[in-house]
Amino acid sequence: MPSNLKVSYHINLYYQPYIFYCGNTVQLFDMIWQMFYILNGVLLLCFALISLILFGLRRYLQRRKVKLGVRNANIVNVGIFHPYCNAHGGGERVLWCAVRALQAKYDNVKVIIYTGDIEISPKDILGKAKDVFDISLDKESITFVYLKCRHWVEAKRYPYFTLLGQSIGSIILGLEGLWKHPPDIYIDTMGYAFTLPLFRYIGRCKVGCYVHYPTISIDMLRRVKQREYSHNNRSYVVRNPFLTWLKLTYYRLFAKVYGWVGQCSETIMVNSSWTENHILDLWDVPFKTHRVYPPCEVMHLKSLEHIENSNEIIILSIGQFRPEKNHPLQLQAMYELRTLLNRNEGMWAQIHLVIVGSCRNDEDYERLKNMQDLTKHLSLENNVEFKVNVPYPELIELYKKASIGIHTMWNEHFGIGIVECMAAGIIMVAHKTGGPLLDIIETSEGSQNGYLAADAVEYANCILNIIRSKKEENDMIRDAARASVERFSEKEFEVNFLRAIIPLFNQSI
């Protein structure tokens, strides 16, 4: 073989791996570029299809508005999203007071209530609003749109990723409502923020919301980060660093999306300083955020006269049997109170804790059973009584007889039950967080209207202090409490609610 061929042969052998590598690299880049172009094409196709679907849906909803008479220039259709409108909690008082305010202010408003109470007639729903809240409404200007997909927003459906599941479920439920009866103005009063962009951008509505508490809060993120156990941060997550990191990542991503959907609201009403602080952190739109305290039944309660009974001291607790209400802390406080009384059996026999609450489902009844078992375990069964779903007249009698109130929820967003107890002349001991701390209870000398506590021992000490205080001292606190709750009346709520939604009507009338 000639020498020049030998050299060429050896060179080819030497560079062959390099040539092979370069060839493969070029092929790899070509393949990546092809995949990139294909992916771009798929994304563009998906974008086009989604745009087409949204355009078609918006056109359909426009035609449906005309068909239903929604586009009537003389009528403004206000849709209120409240899937559990037949309940009788503080959120429902907000709903019916808002409807009453709209009917009183605007002659041309037709109210559409989106509800999942499909087995209850409009007559029965409005009748219950009258019986429970003493709110009379004009039924002729109210339309109920029954939603059959309410099960999509129930927490029991999502044992894991509950926040995400319920939020996606609310979109499904909102789509059903939008499909059945599109409004001109949409107001969410139950905290389903993920419905806001749906009604604004697809339904082309003016949208607002009343936020009782944020779906996710900075406190929830902090608890997960610090690996603190709570009812929504289970023990197996707390013990596992990887699961903690995973949940924290999930919460942070969810908070980002929650912030975006919240910003879609054109007016935002929050029920307390605590809720306002969190919504400002998450949604960051202070110029359209308004603090509107929820309506509380204070006028009638302020007129109640306390029934004195020297042989009995009733401590009253009012709240739904939900995990966040932290009823076990009340039982622990009673246990500590017995210890502080230092074997004063005569005094202990006079003290009775009456826990009044409502049960919505089997889970609530199971929690009630667990608390009854805990009562027996702590040997408190002679001093603790549970009352479930009591009628309003019986509740009024309890207001008259009770002298002390207890509320143990950590970071309670507001505390309607606290306000109503104070209006009835009951001295409240509430948790030193959230709405009770920031808005309701004042503990400074000279203006004290209640007590704040953080754990079972503090609760027990506060209760014992009330029991041992002179009647004149307790009467001063009661008088201050009754005077302070006027700012939480139904009248104040309706004035502030109507002021907050003016931007929606200015653009719709």
From TrEMBL:
<dbReference type="InterPro" id="IPR031814">
    <property type="entry name" value="ALG11_N"/>
</dbReference>
<dbReference type="InterPro" id="IPR038013">
    <property type="entry name" value="ALG11"/>
</dbReference>
<keyword id="KW-0472">Membrane</keyword>
<dbReference type="GO" id="GO:0004377">
    <property type="term" value="F:GDP-Man:Man(3)GlcNAc(2)-PP-Dol alpha-1,2-mannosyltransferase activity"/>
</dbReference>
<dbReference type="Pfam" id="PF15924">
    <property type="entry name" value="ALG11_N"/>
</dbReference>
<keyword id="KW-0256">Endoplasmic reticulum</keyword>
<dbReference type="GO" id="GO:0006487">
    <property type="term" value="P:protein N-linked glycosylation"/>
</dbReference>
<feature type="transmembrane region" description="Helical">
    <location>
        <begin position="158"/>
        <end position="179"/>
    </location>
</feature>
<feature type="domain" description="ALG11 mannosyltransferase N-terminal">
    <location>
        <begin position="77"/>
        <end position="283"/>
    </location>
</feature>
<keyword id="KW-0328">Glycosyltransferase</keyword>
<feature type="domain" description="Glycosyl transferase family 1">
    <location>
        <begin position="308"/>
        <end position="480"/>
    </location>
</feature>
<dbReference type="GO" id="GO:0005789">
    <property type="term" value="C:endoplasmic reticulum membrane"/>
</dbReference>
<keyword id="KW-0808">Transferase</keyword>
<protein>
    <recommendedName>
        <fullName>GDP-Man:Man(3)GlcNAc(2)-PP-Dol alpha-1,2-mannosyltransferase</fullName>
        <ecNumber>2.4.1.131</ecNumber>
    </recommendedName>
</protein>
<dbReference type="Pfam" id="PF00534">
    <property type="entry name" value="Glycos_transf_1"/>
</dbReference>
<dbReference type="InterPro" id="IPR001296">
    <property type="entry name" value="Glyco_trans_1"/>
</dbReference>
<feature type="transmembrane region" description="Helical">
    <location>
        <begin position="35"/>
        <end position="57"/>
    </location>
</feature>
<keyword id="KW-0812">Transmembrane</keyword>
<comment type="pathway">
    <text>Protein modification; protein glycosylation.</text>
</comment>
<comment type="function">
    <text>GDP-Man:Man(3)GlcNAc(2)-PP-Dol alpha-1,2-mannosyltransferase that operates in the biosynthetic pathway of dolichol-linked oligosaccharides, the glycan precursors employed in protein asparagine (N)-glycosylation. The assembly of dolichol-linked oligosaccharides begins on the cytosolic side of the endoplasmic reticulum membrane and finishes in its lumen. The sequential addition of sugars to dolichol pyrophosphate produces dolichol-linked oligosaccharides containing fourteen sugars, including two GlcNAcs, nine mannoses and three glucoses.</text>
</comment>
<comment type="similarity">
    <text>Belongs to the glycosyltransferase group 1 family. Glycosyltransferase 4 subfamily.</text>
</comment>
<keyword id="KW-1133">Transmembrane helix</keyword>
